[in-house]
Here is the input.
Amino acid sequence: MKAELVNPFILATKNVIETMASLKISPGKPYLKKEAVATGDVSSIVGMTGAKNGSFSLSFEKVVMLQIVSNMFGEKMTVLNDEVAEAAGEIVNMVSGQARQELETAGYLIDGAIPSVVTGENHEIRHISEGPKIAVPFSEESTGGHFTLEICFESE
Amino acid sequence: MKAELVNPFILATKNVIETMASLKISPGKPYLKKEAVATGDVSSIVGMTGAKNGSFSLSFEKVVMLQIVSNMFGEKMTVLNDEVAEAAGEIVNMVSGQARQELETAGYLIDGAIPSVVTGENHEIRHISEGPKIAVPFSEESTGGHFTLEICFESE
Here is the structure.
């Protein structure tokens, strides 16, 4: 997959979470996944259609998601409830919007569906496509926790 | 939400699973969900864009999913592994295709993204939108197990 398809999602993820939650997050090196499994305690998923069909997801460890939402709300959140899930959906929606705007500038007109948020300890997500799956690990400084960005577009 | 937007998904779900797995499944009465939570052990999710933005999901109890895939493969499957997840994705892709073809006939041109499949005992899925969420419970005869279809489209 071309870097120009992936980089907008990395930048938007960093930008949205740092802006919304005043946290310092660091992307690791993107890698091509052999197996299509992301694990997490909270995941937000957005389907995409248009110039390229695909999907992307952000899968968070519970500790990171609770810290993000606590900072967004200015109130300590301790449980993965409706409010936290809504916030996870809001984040991925903003990442989707920013990344797709960047892709449009690069010539790819891509629509985003409404997000779905999955909660459940250590669930697994698979993007079902023959196309390559790119994963980008992120770490969050204050908690030392992690989350993973995954993107998959159909092959040409 | 208009029945003409929901019925194609109910019919396609029944049609695809009965055809692919030679099982008898029965849809229950669709209902409007107050809370946006579907629970299951395996869920397939497809984002949709176009005339209406939305998403739909099929959330299966483990026993039903394993029976469906065992029948599709002609081989007893006992674990929610990659093969089962791929099959769950294939099913939802076919439902998506059939339902959207029907919607096109009714004048709604809607694209489907690539499916995502979630595995993890008793996970929860929320469709993040202000629009109404419709759920349809299904039962499968041979196992007595259940699964749930959920559809959400953005409001007008």
Remarks:
- The first helix of chain B runs from residue 3 to 21.
- DSSP finds three helices and eight strands in chain B.
